[in-house]
Structures are given as C-alpha cells and as structure tokens.
Amino acid sequence: MIPLFINGLAASAGAGLTYLRNVIPHLARQPDSQATVLLSAELRAEFPQFPNISFVQASPRRGLLGRFLFEQTELRLLLRRSRAQVLLSTGNFALYHSPVPQILLSGNSLYLSPDFYRDLRKRRDFILWADTLIKGWFARRSLDWADVTVAPTKAFADDLAKWSGKNVLSVHHGFDPSFFTGDSTPLPASMQSQLQESADALKLLFVSHYNYYRNFETLIRALPILRHRLSGKKIRLLLTCHLSSSANPGSYRAETAAALLRTLGLRDNIVELGPVPYRSLHRLYRAAHIYVSPAYAETFAHPLVEAMSSGLPVVASDLPVHREICGDAGIYFPRFSPDLLAEQVLQIYQSPQLAENLSRNGLRRAQDFSWSAHVERLLAIAQELAPLETERS
After folding, report:
1. Spelled out in words, what is the top-level CATH class assigned to the domain 4-174+370-392?
2. Contact between residue 40 and residue 388 where contact means Cβ atoms under 8 Å apart
3. What topology is assigned to 182-366 in CATH?
4. Stated pTM of the model
C-alpha cells in the first residue's frame, strides 16, 4: 500500500469535516494502509490516534493568500518529511507543482454557479462576489495542477469538465449507518425541550448552517402557503442554525432571512435549534416527518443520505445532484418556487402511501453509499498514480 499525505487544512465545518470524520477511520482499517493527515490545530482534538495514521497540525494565516503561501512552502516540507508517494488535496485547491502525484477532491459548486453570482449581486455582497471570483480562478487552475480530479457526484463532475475542459472522475461520498447512529448520547436538554413543544406539529427538517446557496428564503416563503393549506394543523421548520450572522461560519449575512420571518409572521413556525452535535444528529432526523432541501447549488449533500437512512421522505430542489443522490426517494420542485415546494410537502402529508413509498425507497437508496467503497476507489486511483512519483523523484 503506497503512503498517502492528506491535506485536510480546509476542513472546518459542514461537508469537509464530515468527510474527514468518516474517511480517516475507514482508511485506517485498510490492510497495510499508511497515511499522514494535515489538520488545523482546532480540529486535531476531533480525531483519536490510529496505529497507521500520523497527524500533523498547523495554523496557517487566514484567507486564501495565507493558505496559498503556506501550501507552497510549509506543506512542501511536511510532504517531503512524510515520505508520502501521493498527495490527496481535499479542499478544492491543488498544490502547484506538487513534488508527488496529486489527487484533487473538488467539492465546491459555487465557483461555477450563475445562481450564486446572481444572488450575491442582488444582495449587493460585492466583497463575497469578488472573493468567489478569485477563489474560482484558483479552483479552475487547480484542475490543471492536479494529476487526477475527483468529484463526489457524476452531475458535478460533468459540470467541472464543461467548466475546465478537463477530465473529472466521480466517486460518490459514502455513508456509515453504524457510525452515524452508534452514539447513544441524547440531544441536549434545551433541544429536547424545543422539540417537545412541537410534538403535535408537522415537522420539516433542514440540516445546514445559514448560507445563501442553501436557499433558506425560498423555504421560508413556502411556510405561509403551507400554514394556510394545512387548515389549522401546526407546522414547524426545524433548523440546525440560528438566523444570526454571528452564529454561523463564514461571512454570510442572515439578517435578510430573519427579517423575512418577521415580515411573514412566522416566528412561531421556526425552531432554531442551533448546531447539533454530530453524534446526536440521528435523533433529530427521527424526530422529524419530512426532510426538505431547497439548495440552488450542491455537489453531494450528506444530509440527504442521512435523512434517507433515517426513513424520512425527501422534498428537494430539482438539481441534477439531488436527483442523482435521492432518485425515487424524493420528490422535486423548481429551486426558486415556494409554491411548488409547499405543494410537494402537502402531497406527502396528504398521502401516507406516498410517504411510505419514499421512506422505503430512501432506506434502500442509502445502502448504496459506502465510505469503505469510497476509500478503496481513492486508494486504487493512488496506486495507479504511484509510477509517476518514481518519474518525478
């Protein structure tokens, strides 16, 4: 087994952290595997020791420039000291002139999303618009710098190939039901109390911190329609965030969404749980009735698989990625239509048979995602690249 170096510096929250939490244990279980994993100092405590995994930590300067300078200098030194034969770059950006063959994991659809750029202009968030353009340039060049680029879905791989003119492989991310449900830690008492207050309501769940591309506003605008159509039935939207800019990672401003709640008189219909510990997240899925994802840009969406494995029917925006992940476990709506989003939720609520079919299909579909299979495929790609390391040395 060839030794790997995994650059996980970019993982801080959301999908990046979920990825490392799952991949590292499965990599450690591979026979004769050997890897060095670079993490931020803040994340090192998240991971226990493994006999065949070495961890190094660093605290590079913040921002794209700080990260780029660190990777072009310190990362090269760490890579040489590790004696790794293949570099796995997990954060959308590749190392320029890597001394060893490099696999780039590309998982950010925002750089090539017209909807995202349009949304930023509409919000007059020109700083983030410019920042995304600059990062998009680096992301596009990274496909040139990498020996192999891997995307988490075929739909996103196809988009990347059209955007860059490069060949891009698709390897689905995985899911480990035993890991996801293995911790018996209950939800925090404050969250249990909030859920108890919604015991007799139709509970919709959306797992995400606040950002623009997850399209919270379309979901919020669907709630008055549902409230009117449900004729007295209580409805609650469970969120794993607070609609406050200071309570979410990144620079996304949540004030517009919070103001929309007040304007529409929806404060009683929203339950802002805040971040839920991953070890207890499975309990939240099982407390809900329907999972809703209104995102207008996506590359994989781990919560969709988590929802399907928990038996929840899914209502998702009509993105190729969503259809690829959920298939017949979900029903879909045009991504900026609150009316049709509400209509799909109502279909499930009014048809127990439809809800049961979607739930059954989701339980079956979730079994198609495997972290072990994902890791094995990456190792096979690395093995194919190993001869290039000899040519470069």
Report:
1. alpha beta
2. no
3. Rossmann fold (3.40.50)
4. 0.92
